[in-house]
């Protein structure tokens, strides 16, 4: 499964999202937001494993595509 990362700035904070999993994180800069998103995706996969799904967290993280960065929250509109 290929996963994408979208990063945008909103009110001085950066938001990173993975639309395929419908998860969001934030940070004081784009890199912090992306790092937090990677942690959330790993948690997501590990929790799915605990529930009996066959998901490999390292495989999901390896399939993250290059982040797309937006200057503002305009892509939400």
Index terms:
elongated; 2 helices; single chain; 35% helix; four-stranded mixed beta sheet; alpha+beta; 77 residues
Descriptive overview:
Strand 2 and strand 3 form a beta hairpin. The protein is α+β, with helices and mostly antiparallel strands and 77 residues long. The chain has helices spanning 30-50, 57-62; strands spanning 6-10, 13-18, 23-27, 68-69. The mean pLDDT is 82. Helix content is 35%, strand content 23%. The chain has one domain.
SSE topology sketch:
Blueprint: E1 6-10, E2 13-18, E3 23-27, H1 30-50, H2 57-62, E4 68-69
Parallel strand pairs: 1-4
Antiparallel strand pairs: 1-2, 2-3
Counted up, domains total: 1
Helix content: 25-40%
Described by the principal axes of the CA atoms, the overall outline is elongated
Strand percentage, roughly? 15-25%
In what order do the strands lie side by side in the largest sheet? 3-2-1-4
Rg from Cα: 13 Å
Low confidence ranges:
none
Brief description of this entry?
The protein has 2 helices and 4 strands; from the N terminus they run E-E-E-H-H-E.
